[in-house]
Specification:
Elements lengths: L1 H6 L6 E4 L15 H5 L5 E6 L12 E4 L2 H9 L8 H12 L1 H25 L3 E2 L7 E2 L12
Length: 147
């Protein structure tokens, strides 16, 4: 990510959609919020409460960026802003680290279970960090397993 951002001109906006951030289970995943903290004025990080927090129905998320970058967005607020109930739910979700830990653990357990079953069935699949797995099924699906 450092190399990529070093090549992006300052006038080009880089939006990092991190809807599945909490599920990522690898040490080499970049800590993108540091770019905003370091003063990169052209980086915006987006996250959601729809995945690991389990409150998709509220359609709640947030963006982190330099205040100057966010100012135009705040100037054109939606007709129907986020409800107070959704805001309270988001605040409570951010404070519930145990729920996030359990969600991540159960997601990892579920993925591993699926991987074993796909291997047993001889199905091709791609490992994932999210709460989903790509698997090929059907008459023409190759019986190749990535493991």
């Amino acid at each position: 990510m450092d190399d990529f951002l070093a090549r992006v001109p300052e006038h080009v906006l880089v939006v990092l959609d991190e809807a599945y951030f909490e599920y990522v289970d690898t040490d080499d995943y970049p800590e993108s919020l540091r770019y905003v903290r370091e003063g990169r004025k052209n980086v915006m990080v987006l996250r959601t409460f729809s995945k690991v927090y389990g409150i998709a129905g509220l359609r709640l998320g947030f963006g982190v960026a330099d205040p100057e970058l966010l100012a135009p967005l705040l100037a054109c607020a939606e007709s129907f802003p986020v409800s107070r109930l959704a805001q309270v739910a988001g605040e409570a979700a951010l404070e519930d680290a145990e729920f996030v830990r359990q969600s991540v653990e159960m997601n990892r357990f579920g993925r591993e279970y699926l991987y074993c079953e796909f291997q047993r069935l001889g199905l091709f699949y791609l490992r994932s960090h999210g709460n989903f797995v790509l698997v090929r099924v059907g008459p023409g699906a190759p019986a190749v397993v990535e493991g």
